[in-house]
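Format notes (please read before filing issues)

Several people have asked whether sequences and structure tokens are stored in separate files. They are not. Every record keeps both together, in the order shown below: the sequence lines, then the token lines. Line labels are part of the format and must not be stripped during preprocessing.
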Amino acid sequence: MYIEDDSLGYLLNRADLKVKNHFQRLIKSCNVTREQWTILSQLYDADGISQKELAEHTLKDQAAVTRMLDTMEGKGLIRREVNPTDRRAFSVYLTDRGKELRNKIVPFAEQCLREVTVGMSETEVCALKTLLRKIEDNLD
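Then the structure lines:
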């Protein structure tokens, strides 16, 4: 007998939605969405990457990333500069304000992860990460 509530896809989707919603509630006071947080985080690790690379790293289409960057640029969180090697492309950089916001949100992200993994041992968390990476690799 097939029980939808016990299917892997259902459980993964439900857990993903709950984590995203919880994190969004935690960062609500920062006036940023979790999608924008993903951009801030990516740029903090690789400042100056292209919009195309941001889309690839965040698994978003380029049009969605462009819209997010427009909003973030309006908030003074990022700046775009013409790529010196490809004048058709833009490199994206965090502003000081964007770096400050990223640093303000990190404790919320850490809190979210602590709350998500309550009752799990370090071994279980490592095993979960390994399994999730396998799922992702299987779909690449």
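For reference, the curators noted about this record: The helical segments are 8-26, 34-45, 51-58, 62-74, 96-116, 122-139. The chain has one domain: 8-139.
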